[in-house]
TrEMBL record:
<keyword id="KW-0645">Protease</keyword>
<feature type="compositionally biased region" description="Basic and acidic residues">
    <location>
        <begin position="302"/>
        <end position="320"/>
    </location>
</feature>
<protein>
    <submittedName>
        <fullName>PDZ domain-containing protein</fullName>
    </submittedName>
</protein>
<dbReference type="InterPro" id="IPR036034">
    <property type="entry name" value="PDZ_sf"/>
</dbReference>
<feature type="domain" description="PDZ">
    <location>
        <begin position="201"/>
        <end position="286"/>
    </location>
</feature>
<feature type="region of interest" description="Disordered">
    <location>
        <begin position="300"/>
        <end position="329"/>
    </location>
</feature>
<dbReference type="InterPro" id="IPR001478">
    <property type="entry name" value="PDZ"/>
</dbReference>
<dbReference type="InterPro" id="IPR051201">
    <property type="entry name" value="Chloro_Bact_Ser_Proteases"/>
</dbReference>
<keyword id="KW-0378">Hydrolase</keyword>
<dbReference type="InterPro" id="IPR009003">
    <property type="entry name" value="Peptidase_S1_PA"/>
</dbReference>
<dbReference type="Pfam" id="PF13365">
    <property type="entry name" value="Trypsin_2"/>
</dbReference>
<dbReference type="Pfam" id="PF13180">
    <property type="entry name" value="PDZ_2"/>
</dbReference>
<dbReference type="InterPro" id="IPR001940">
    <property type="entry name" value="Peptidase_S1C"/>
</dbReference>
Length: 329
């Protein structure tokens, strides 16, 4: 009995200490999402949980609400970033998610709009390496904690038993919890603070996956069974200048095989390719053809007002654990 009491007290202490950097993010909805005071004056939350980016207030542990300024977001990793001025709330103690093991005990922390801390406990149920969201976001580690994401828990913290915040929780397929690891969060914050936006490559094409006929695979000695067909080309875009045509089927991007639109989006999300000439291998008229294209930079404006989401959660929206969708980039 004393051991259970000791464990219970230890967990309560972790919730109290780590929870001091967890806030509520109020965006005019009935139930606020949660957020994390990640760095001094920097608040992160789940991008998908927000209906808007303006007139946002942050509720801290004392129940005080403070105005927040929108800095930017990355919908492909489900991270939105806000700034607080002259805040005195503690900054999160960030840990290393790569130290987690399946079976480790973890806590999910959230905060209500009234300022109350909320907690859920569970185990790390699944871990794997880097993965890609449906809209091409590169996420450094797959983490699935076996915790209930109650209303308002999205955007809150995943905390290990040492009291370190190892990532931000978000809703996964069929309502299961997923955690965006700290390394991904830091990368997004760094880019938003440096540039005010997330730089992404741009070709100017609409795409959808297509199955390659068996006889074509044999004739062209292709190892892939699928490619990406071009269904739209924007005028004066990099793809247009390169000579890409409707009906072309993309099978390699810069020497890397592509099987669906997510592959292309993930490669374009690498900002190192912006302004550089890369080779697209396509199938046109039953033959392989190489085209050189200079990757542009997406000019999409991602501030001020909320864009329509592509879907809900990971099941058919902006992030996923598998699946395909149409894409344009």
């Amino acid at each position: 009995m004393s051991s259970l009491i000791g464990l219970s007290n230890s967990l309560a202490e972790i919730v109290e200490q780590a929870g001091s950097s967890v806030v509520a993010v109020n965006a005019g909805t009935r139930i606020s999402s949660s957020g994390i005071h990640w760095r001094n004056g920097i608040i992160i939350t789940s991008d998908e949980s927000l209906p808007r980016y303006d007139e946002i207030t942050i509720t801290v542990s004392e129940g005080q609400s403070l105005p927040a300024t929108f800095l930017g977001h990355d919908s492909s990793t489900d991270i939105a970033v806000f700034q607080l001025q002259d805040t005195q709330i503690p900054v999160a103690k960030i840990g290393d998610a790569t130290t987690l093991k399946v079976g480790h005990l973890v806590l999910g922390l959230a905060r209500s709009s009234q300022g109350d801390i909320r907690a859920a406990m569970g185990l790390v149920s699944a871990l794997s390496g880097a993965w890609r969201s449906m809209s091409g976001g590169n996420i450094d580690q797959f983490i699935r904690p076996d915790i209930n994401l109650y209303p308002g828990f999205a955007g809150g913290a995943l905390v290990d038993v040492a009291g370190y915040l190892v990532g931000m929780n978000t809703s996964g397929r069929r309502g299961t919890a997923l955690t965006i690891p700290a390394t991904t969060v830091n990368r997004v914050i760094d880019q938003l603070l440096a540039k005010g936006r997330i730089s992404r490559g741009y070709l100017g094409v609409g795409m959808q996956p297509v199955r390659l006929p068996d006889n074509l695979q044999t004739a062209l000695n292709l190892s892939s069974t699928t490619g990406v067909i071009v269904v739209n080309i924007e005028a004066a875009s990099p793809a247009d200048h390169a000579g890409l045509l409707l009906g072309d089927v993309l099978v390699k991007f810069d020497g890397i095989a592509v099987h669906d639109t997510g592959d292309v989006l993930a490669l374009l999300n690498n900002s190192d390719r912006i302004g550089k000439s890369i080779t697209l291998q396509i199938i046109r008229g039953g033959a392989l053809l190489d085209l050189n294209v200079v990757v542009g930079e997406s000019q999409a404006i991602e501030e001020g007002k909320k864009h329509e989401p592509h879907g809900r959660g990971h099941e058919g929206g902006r992030r996923h654990e598998g699946g395909r969708r149409h894409g344009k980039r």
